[in-house]
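Shipment paperwork, digital attachment
Item: protein structure file
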Amino acid sequence: MLKNIHVKIQVKFLSVLLYYCFLPLLAFSQDVDYNKIILPDEIDSVGIQEHLVRLAWKNNPGNSILEKQRQMKVYQEKMQKSKWLNQVKIQGNLNEATINPPENFNNNVFYPRYNFSVMIPLGIFTEQKYGNQIAKIETEIAAENIKLQKLQVRALVIEQYQRFNMYRNQYKLIQQLVEDEYSKHLIVEQKFKNGEVSLDDYSESLKTYNNELLKRYSSEADFQIAKAQLEMLIGIPLEEAY
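Attachment content:
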């Protein structure tokens, strides 16, 4: 009885171990639908983030260059398949004397009257075979580069959009702090004029306000830079994207 329980425990342990060992391989083998990396125009109801990703894919000249390079590889692959014909040479000897000899033409004609020859290099079949394989691989690489570009464009846009949102929210928060600090400083300034607070209190209030003001300038610069970088990816002003 104990032996059977022990065997069952071992089998269960091995099953769990195999599951977790092969789980990464199963996850890695999942197919990726690259047509969904960049959502097509037919899908209207998309969020702003997906909309920006789509704009970046459509408006970036680098993406168009990759697509044209892929098309070139497709044409080159088709050309390669018929390239062997350029190496085949056909020669012949056909003239009027052999086709329609005149009446006074003597019959002393060497045979055969028609001479044809075909020259095929010995290495043409091997060269054509591997040339076709190379052209096919180059076409596949061009297609894979487009898939890679889709992943990179999506990641860049999402990362930059999140950075833009972060700096925008920071700027709004610091702007509110500056306004609050300015209101406080106005009160201290009025009290200083009335002689209710000392010069040190006034100076400290002014210093605090100026520090918040400097933070706002820095935050605004970060916000505008992040906005410009996002616009560089999507190809249009951000205001036109919404």
